[in-house]
Amino acid sequence: MIKRITGVLLFIAVISVQTGYGQRIMGAAIVGLNATQVDGDEVYGYKNFGLNTGLSAIVPFNNKWSVSIENIYSEKGAHQRVKYLDSLDGSYDLKLNYLEVPVLLHFTDKDIVTFGAGMSWGRLVKVWEQRNGYEMPATTLESGIYRSSDLNFLLDVRFRVFERLRFNARYAYSIRPIATREIIDSKTGRPNIRDQYNGLFSFRLIYVFNERLSRESRRQGPQPQF
User: Fold this and answer.
1) Alpha helices in the chain (DSSP H)
2) Considering the entire predicted model, what is its pTM?
3) Would residue 184 count as lying in a domain?
4) For the chain, how many structural domains are there in total?
5) Which residue range or ranges hold the Outer membrane protein beta-barrel domain (predicted)?
6) What is the pLDDT of residues 122-180, one digit of tens each?
């Protein structure tokens, strides 16, 4: 997978040099918040909050269509607050932190709102689990309980706040299970083997660089028709 991502980056670089897209490429700085859950763990709701931050390169084909690639640090997981006043208090916390590379195709309407869809690949860099207030020492990167990578599909919308600043809302969901674990069913009290999946909503601010130069370059040169 890393080789494929490297191949995509090299392809974009070659296209940039050979067709003059170098002046059109825009950069962006991203910072925001994830609201996440893990489907299949008997903990419900997007109650775990984490950081979503990184950098992006945006390659416009014309004034409407573009493609972007990001390098993101993203904190995922699940959270359940204390439910009972005893030693088994029902609390639960799972932290799954990833370095992600999302790739999206975007369509911009009237230079105000941008819709996007794509996929992301993420490398798991941290795992931490706590149940009933006690840390689970067996849940580590090396244990293999959680996959070392996460593959997601993405839906994305961005609104221009003013000039270079965008507000971004994104939904992501795992395409394949991140783990297969034995879970106690909340209805029957019996253990079940379940696949687990990451789900998240991200709310981010995106600050775009080189937008004016990119627009001037597109005006001067021929644009592909989509």
Assistant:
1) 2-19, 211-220
2) 0.84
3) yes
4) 1
5) 31-178
6) 999 999 999 988 899 999 999 999 999 999 999 999 999 988 999 999 999 999 999 99
User: Does the pLDDT at position 28 exceed 60?
Assistant: yes
Q: How far, in Å, CA of 132 to CA of 83, rounded?
A: 9
Per the listing, tokens 């028709």 go with 225
Give me the chain's average pLDDT, please. Answer: 86
What's the CA gap between 72 and 56, in Å, rounded? Answer: 8
- What's the token pair of residue 223? 């644009």
Residue with tokens 């794509």: 118
Domain carrying residue 213? 31-220
Element spanning 91, H or E: none
Give yes or no for a contact between 146 and 156, defined as CB atoms under 8 angstroms apart: no
CATH number, domain of 126, equals 2.40.160.20
Give φ, ψ of 195 to 5 degrees: -80, 145
What one-letter code names the amino acid at 44? Answer: Y
Q: Interior CA angle at 178 toward 177 and 179, to 5°?
A: 90
Q: Is 195 inside any structural domain? A: yes
Task: With respect to residue 171, please indicate whether it lies within any of the assigned structural domains.
Answer: yes
Amino acid at 188: T
Output the CA angle 68-71-74, nearest 5 degrees. 115
Q: pLDDT class for 16, splitting at 50, 70, 90?
A: very low
